[in-house]
């Protein structure tokens, strides 16, 4: 690869970019910040070594993951990607609590609906079968239905 | 740390451990694997630079997170920590979907029992709109792209170079 088409890594390191440069496919010259970040956190030789130890078909994902981790570490020099993990774990706790509360509400509403449905069924049964009940003395305190002609 | 007991980093790097060694407080000699991992992934000079740029009271946390990241990358050379992040993002999405389902259920029950149950001040059109939105949200989550391509999911969250 000529000087005019050096990858971002070789351009940053001011060296000749070979045809078999292991970093070139994943650090194009159009995106110099990406390599600058990775070099700052991991170092070019570490990244090259890590990529060489990975099968070729997985190197793109590995390079992307390394670049992400480097980016998060630059954004948060103390916690890096561990800070992102902590934030997600907090989000999960909040979502779990909210889900439990909402599901409890669903259970309450469902129980209320079921209870009302049962009451309606009982009343309907009594109305339908009132003619089968012989005349009974009034039960004190209970409101009696009107006489059925 | 000076004297006869070099810290783990100076022992690995085979150099004299001075009393102002930046690594000594965090990499004791009885935990050699900790520094070995960090050195393998980040490199001693990079770690030294990172620690020097931090105030003293934050260095311990920084070292802990670096050790965690290095360990994750040793276990998973392709995805490292990003694998765990993608898994957690997936969990958040699933919980949000379940929450949307439960909220839609409540609205359905309320709409069916309109005269009987206490309800928020919405008319039938508003409720239909809200239920439709909840169901659309559920449809989006169900059609959410698979996270098998792990870094892409984490990339969507916050990354300027996609």
Task: Walk me through this protein's architecture.
The complex is a heterodimer of chains A (149) and B (162). With 149 residues, chain A is mainly α. Helix content of chain A is 60%, strand content 0%. The longest helix of chain A is centred in the C-terminal third of the chain and has 48 residues, at 81-128. In chain A, 26% of the residues are buried. Chain B starts with 7 loop residues before the first helix and ends in a 5-residue tail after the last helix. Chain B is elongated, with a radius of gyration of 26 Å. Chain B has helices spanning 8-13, 32-41, 44-52, 56-75, 81-112, 124-142, 150-157. The relative contact order of chain B is 0.08. The chains are: A mainly alpha (149), B mainly alpha (162).
Oligomer: heterodimer
Question: What string gives the helices and strands of chain B in order?
Answer: HHHHHHH
Percentage of residues in strands of chain B = under 5%
| Sheet with most strands of chain A | none
List the helices and strands and how they pair.
The complex is a heterodimer of chains A (149) and B (162).
Chain A: H1 8-13, H2 32-41, H3 44-52, H4 59-75, H5 81-128
Helix pairs in contact in A: 2-4
Chain B: H1 8-13, H2 32-41, H3 44-52, H4 56-75, H5 81-112, H6 124-142, H7 150-157
What tags apply to this protein structure?
heterodimer; A: about 150 residues; mainly alpha; 5 helices; rod-shaped; B: about 160 residues; elongated
Summarize it:
Chain A is mainly alpha-helical.
């Amino acid at each position: 690869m000529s000087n005019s088409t050096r990858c971002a890594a070789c351009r940053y390191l001011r060296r000749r970019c070979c045809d078999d440069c292991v970093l070139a496919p994943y650090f194009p010259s159009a995106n110099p910040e990406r390599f600058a970040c990775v070099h700052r956190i991991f170092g070019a030789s570490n990244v090259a070594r890590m990529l060489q130890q990975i099968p070729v078909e997985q190197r793109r994902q590995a390079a992307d993951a390394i670049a992400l981790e480097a980016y998060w570490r630059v954004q948060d020099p103390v916690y890096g990607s561990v800070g992102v993990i902590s934030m997600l774990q907090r989000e999960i706790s909040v979502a779990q609590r909210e889900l439990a509360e909402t599901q409890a509400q669903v259970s309450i509403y469902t129980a209320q609906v079921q209870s009302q449905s049962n009451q309606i069924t009982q009343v309907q049964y009594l109305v339908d079968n009132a003619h089968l009940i012989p005349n009974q003395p009034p039960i004190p305190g209970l409101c009696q239905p009107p006489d059925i002609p | 740390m000076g004297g006869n007991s070099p810290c783990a980093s100076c022992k690995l790097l085979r150099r004299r451990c001075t009393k102002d060694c930046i690594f000594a407080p965090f990499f004791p000699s009885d935990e050699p694997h900790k520094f070995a991992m960090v050195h393998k992934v980040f490199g001693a000079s990079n770690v030294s630079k990172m620690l020097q740029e931090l105030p003293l009271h934050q260095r311990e946390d920084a070292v802990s997170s670096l050790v965690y990241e290095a360990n994750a990358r040793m276990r998973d050379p392709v995805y490292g920590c990003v694998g765990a992040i993608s898994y957690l993002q997936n969990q958040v999405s699933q919980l949000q979907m379940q929450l949307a389902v439960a909220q839609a259920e409540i609205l359905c029950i309320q709409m069916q029992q309109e005269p009987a149950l206490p309800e928020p001040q919405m008319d039938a059109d508003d409720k239909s709109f809200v239920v439709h939105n909840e169901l659309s949200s559920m449809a989006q989550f169900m059609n959410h792209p698979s996270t098998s391509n792990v870094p892409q999911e984490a990339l969507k969250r916050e990354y300027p170079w996609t």
